[in-house]
Predict the structure.
Amino acid sequence: MSKPRSVEAEFKERSLLLPVNDLYAGHWAKSRLDSFHSYNVASLVPRGFERYARILHPAWKSGGWQRFPLTWADVAARSGRRCHALMQWPRIVGSMISGVDIEPPDAGTLPWPVSGPLRAILAGHTDWELCWFGMWSSYGQFYQDYVPKTKSIEFHTGTGHEWDLYRAPLGMLGTSFIHLGHETAGLVWANDRSWWMSAGIELHSSYIGGTTNLIEDILSAPELEAWPSSPDDNITIDSDTLNSL
């Protein structure tokens, strides 16, 4: 896999990341989201889409100063665990994998092995020029200089979690909003509301709802490790009943 192109400098110069001060833009989704304490996909992605998918964030294999993406299937094969749509990282990694230095998947942010292929797929199903981005407002004090201040809206995506809203091209998908680390927008949806993606703040995977054609393209993409999902799927560690701790 190749890393996606760098977009920060381009978007900074062209001021394409626009603050959203009219929170009406996100109100349509609030009534379609389940309570956070439902701990299901519908607490992250609104109900009403034709299909849903779960995209696993890769684990990382250390290699000197670099790290290389490692699929959950690779990890499960080495730990003797079973792959399925509801598998959870702590249960498939097992106690340890002999001879392999493995870092856990990134949580709450889109890693580059996911954002690059996903951006390319979404580009074929939406208007490139206009999408909506939500960034957890607690990161606000660490924002890059090119990230403007904006108003926050609370969705049912975490107790007390509010999201700063922005408009920007789809190309911002996977771009870091903060100075240190790589925290990307955790909420992204199309202007025509044809899809919605959420990277749960503490989750090792992202969930997306959209049209049947979009979800089929995601599930069939060789660069992504994705599984079919549904609004009622549990997202906690207890959902993995096939692999014991």
Q: What stands out?
A: Residues 112-123 form the longest helix (12 residues).
